[in-house]
Design a protein that fits this description.
With 159 residues, the chain is mainly α. It has a single domain, classed as Globin-like. It contains nine helices and no strands.
Length: 159
């Protein structure tokens, strides 16, 4: 197999692993649902970050995930000033609704928590810390305790 095909195989394999992890957290066998949850949450997060940090986060995503992370992005007017958990989750909810995944058992908070758990396990601690430092407390609380604790330790060390 040529190197160019290996790159595609590799990103496809990584993306399937990411989706599988989300499916396990959401207790579903629906890969399409996991994809839509990942996409909606990443878009809400991307739009809450400044352009530079959004690009740094995007650089750590598998190539295929990076493609739908940037899909439709217009950095004009970013970051959004969503300071409260409810506003952020409403953003996730609207994205899920837009993608025809609005079902009674799809909870935007559960979706966001599953994606943030995945990012905590798959991205570098430094990048997660940079993202968390930019988020208001209410939105940071959607992330796993382990990522919030390590960020707090890093902030204390740097001061």
């Amino acid at each position: 197999m040529s190197n160019s095909l290996e790159v595609f195989e590799s990103t496809l394999q990584k993306t399937h692993l990411w989706l599988k992890e989300i499916m396990e957290d959401l207790k579903t066998h629906d890969r399409h649902r996991a994809y839509l949850v990942l996409r909606a949450t990443l878009h809400a997060l991307r739009d809450r970050l400044g352009v530079e940090e959004a690009a740094k986060l995007g650089a750590q995503l598998p190539m295929l995930v990076r493609g739908f992370y940037y899909e439709g992005w217009d950095p004009t007017g970013k970051p959004l000033k969503e300071r409260h958990k409810e506003n952020f989750l409403a953003h996730v909810y609207r994205a899920l609704k837009t993608n025809a995944l609005l079902e009674p058992d799809v909870d935007p908070e559960e979706a966001a928590r599953a994606v943030f758990k995945l990012l905590t396990h798959r991205l570098t601690d430094g990048e997660i810390g940079n993202v968390l430092k930019l988020l208001p407390k209410e939105i940071r609380e959607l992330w796993p305790e382990e990522s919030r604790a390590s960020t707090q330790r890093a902030v204390r060390k740097s001061t």
